[in-house]
Amino acid sequence: MRNPFFRFKQFEVWHDRCAMKVGTDGVLLGAWVDVTRSRQVLDIGTGSGLIALMIAQRCDARITGIDIDADAVGQACENADASPWSERIHISRADVAEFNEGKYDTIVSNPPFFCEQVHCPDRQRNAARHTESLTFECLLDAVKRLLTDDGSFSVILPAGLIGSFTTSAAERHLYASRRTDILTKPGVLPKRVLLTFCRSVRACDTDSLVIESSPRTYSPEFIQLIKDFYLHV
User: What distance in Å separates the CA atoms of residue 181 and residue 162, rounded to the nearest whole number?
Assistant: First the structure.
């Protein structure tokens, strides 16, 4: 049986009522996104509230998390309320296509990206996994509308979808400024890519990160990224 919660160094994330559980993708994004100048943060598709909680630990910003799933929103509210940063985190049920609660200097999303025709039988998990519930076009339209002029939008995606996503972003005058390719081990092709977009065209700062330097051994760079969150590292 899957553990109903995931314990980090400064908080716990219960996820038994959420379609998508705590995973490496969310942890990577929550630890990687630049929040040094963040004041108002929006987490689109917050799920259990994992990324919102990680950002709250890393900065003093006020954070809003939204999701369309009522069960996920309820559990994210409980996770936020039980954290040391409950006064700075607000979770609400909302469709980002209709969401219009101000502007945000930092927007993050770990969006659904499974595009296969064959869907899993669980409706809730289906919505969290498939782009029908939040298309990339809808996500980028929302970012264009909600991002401040000097703000940034960060996302994690499968490497194979980066081309189409960056093209759609550029059509909305959002341009990649930072990129990290994620490799599960040395010598393999990246499976995930972390990207940050802004409104101005600039050179994109690009690097890579290996998760495991050898089987079941985290690499030094991955440890450096997640050391403030994972237990026993």
Answer: 11
The pair of three-digit structure tokens given for residue 154, joined into one six-digit string: 């960060």
Contacts with 230 (C-beta within 8 Å, 6 or more apart), sequence order: 8, 9, 27
Amino acid occupying residue 223: I
Q: Which of 182, 174, 189, 185 is nearest to 157 (CA)?
A: 182
Convert the pLDDT of each residue in 193-213 to its tens digit.
Answer: 999 999 999 999 999 999 999
What are the Cα distances from residue 15, in Å, to 19, 72, 83, 139?
8, 8, 15, 24
Q: Which of 12, 206, 214, 58 is nearest to 43 (CA)?
A: 58
Asked if 13 contacts 52 with a C-beta cutoff of 8 angstroms, the reply is no
User: Which runs of E-coded beta strand occur in 58-199?
Assistant: 62-67, 89-93, 104-109, 147-158, 175-183, 192-198
**Among 96, 67, 61, 94, residue whose Cα is nearest residue 79:** 67
Provide the whole-model pTM: 0.92
Question: Are the C-beta atoms of residues 205 and 178 closer than 8 Å to each other?
Answer: yes
Degrees, nearest 5: CA angle 41-107-39: 30
**The two three-digit tokens of residue 20, written as one number:** 């998508």
pLDDT digits (tens, 9 = 90+) for 140-152: 999 999 999 999 9
Distances 221 to 25, 99, 156, 198 between C-alpha atoms, Å? 16, 37, 18, 25
Using N-to-C axis directions, what is the helix angle for 70-81 and 50-58, rounded to 10°? 30
